[in-house]
Amino acid sequence: MRGELDMACTDVVDAAAALVPEYAVVVTVDLSDLTFIDGTGADALAAFHAAQLVRGRKVRLTRPQPCVRRVLELVGMGSLLAAERPPIRRSSGQHRPVWLRTAPLCWGLGTERTQPER
């Protein structure tokens, strides 16, 4: 996500829900470029999370700015914030860890779809 998430742009969250691939088990939302969120924006993310749970998916919120992290923690959404993991060094023959097999969404930047490994 990029910019601000408030009452004026909660429809972006609703539209993004339709972009989640059917095969996704975990949906990762990158919040690194989100500079502001209010209660309405947090409600939109909570509704997105609930809709994904109904479909059997987990939602992971990553890399929030400190002010965004604080709001999400205050409204009880801190459990959705992903713990940052250090990069994994691996040879080209190793398999990807399970937590990397996700469908990341970058709202405002388009979507990036990751195909599942076979």
How would you describe what is shown here?
The protein is α/β, with parallel strands linked by helices and 118 residues long. It has one domain (2-85, 95-105): STAS domain (Transcription Regulator spoIIAA, 2-Layer Sandwich), CATH 3.30.750. The protein has helices at residues 10-17, 39-54, 66-74, and strands spanning 2-5, 26-30, 33-37, 58-62, 103-105. The strands form two sheets. Strands 4-2-5 form a three-stranded parallel beta sheet, with helices on one face.
**Uncertain parts:** 96-104, 106-118
What is the mean pLDDT? 79
Over the alpha carbons, how many angstroms does the gyration radius reach? 15 Å
CATH architecture classification: 2-Layer Sandwich
Brief synopsis:
The protein has helices spanning 10-17, 39-54, 66-74; strands spanning 2-5, 26-30, 33-37, 58-62, 103-105.
Give the tags.
single chain; 118 residues; alpha/beta; Transcription Regulator spoIIAA; three-stranded parallel beta sheet; two-stranded parallel ribbon; 28% helix; globular; disordered C terminus
Topology:
Layout: E1 2-5, H1 10-17, E2 26-30, E3 33-37, H2 39-54, E4 58-62, H3 66-74, E5 103-105
Parallel strand pairs: 1-3, 2-4, 2-5
Helix pairs in contact: 1-2
